[in-house]
């Protein structure tokens, strides 16, 4: 039998194969470990995970210890590098409120290094390492994940507490990716750019960078068939315009669904960049509003549902800036800004928003159109032609009847804005139509609709209070009774609705006349209102409590209600006094103090004993507020003291109080 002979090359092949298998196995172990850590940090509380950051993130460039960036920058496996980026994303996602503790200025000269400075140093290293990784990456998969990770990091980082320069470095390192053929990378680039522009408190660094009409090293020449942009337009608008019109051209070459689906996300994200840019940097954008209007109008004509939706939102931001221009303008410029805004709205209402109420228009676009309409503003609305004003009112009332809850909610909210316009406040027939639609909406099954309806109802009744004599004459008892009944029923609803319902209830108590109070039905409503408000002042969500206090204050202002002579007077005052003395939230105390000082007549405060108790509650309030342990309430302390002092001054001239004090030996009070 022949002996088997194995060559050295065969031994070598076996060894190299085993090495490759070992490397593959080790990379799988690392990837599994990274996946496990990612799952852990996704599930655990961010406050807990922050305590482990120092194991994964270095706090200086000199650090030699292995970190998450050892894996991201040096691992031979692209999957492991991606796993490291997934882990870093999980660490940052949702950590914004905790990262505000960072402060690079909090560096001491001694041996002690503060946590805030260490955290800031970690954030510095994360930015340096990610920018470096992006510059070195040569795989589309890796570039895509770094851009996504960078977007999350930017969203959660407090840049006002770090060194300046990181945001401009990020823009500089990502900008060339807009030329990539891979549309996923271009979408990720736009998402990252949106995060950079969305950062809170725009710094001087960003103001200077984004206000420039050119970006060094880039030439954003307008594409054929695109609207020509003015030379002074910021480079960011030129960039997004190019991406939008380029996307449109590519789509037009091939009308297949494949082409449309590839280009649509780029157009959507480019529009989102413009929307965020307009919202966060209105001072820069205000000189380019005409260019933005042309871009949005072209996108509206595209026909794609999502692109049209973002175009309407961009038009809304333009309207917001125009309204702001009018509000902030001096006497010399106001007329010019007003004329520009009127012409803008004439164009929108005659063209872009003309078919807003048509059922053929997508529901999300109809809802966005309502939000856009709410930005007209009272001054512009007054200058519009009568035909366009009527179009706005009839369109809104039609959309309030829409079966889609999102459209109905937006329309009802817009109605609440319109009823506050002085010109429409005098139109009792329009207000009556609005009230009926709002009352129907507040009984809707959808929470979002009821929330918006409660806010609008409070606004409408606020407008009714301003012209109460006119509404007392033109509104029937039946309609007023229905308003009151719906309000009382809604007080048992969700807290999100309840705090606005308390505002509506207060306005209603201020609106009622002596003719209403002669009816037994309204007397019963008021008794129920006092019970509900007393309960709401003493417990529940803080917004509900201070709105309940405010509602009682408005009731005291109505001289038609005989406060002081009615049996529930003592109960209501005791509730407010309890809030003033014991509530931990100073804003509730302040509102309760304002409510107590709202009465203009001494008779509202009842007998001398009750009046003295009110005085005593203010003294207790001053004493207890001085020893509060809640740091968040200190900012309201001076305001609370001022309110107490104003009330003491308001009622101090009633000498009956002093006599009662002396007779009952209240000499130990220290003011």
UniProtKB/TrEMBL annotation:
Coiled-coil region list: none
Looking at the record, the residues that make up the DUF4042 domain are 28-206
Q: What Pfam families does the record point to?
A: DUF4042 (PF13251)
Instruction: Name the PANTHER family for this protein.
Output: HEAT REPEAT-CONTAINING PROTEIN 6 (PTHR13366:SF0), MALARIA ANTIGEN-RELATED (PTHR13366)
- What name does the UniProt record give this protein? HEAT repeat-containing protein 6
| Species classification | Eukaryota, Metazoa, Placozoa, Uniplacotomia, Trichoplacea
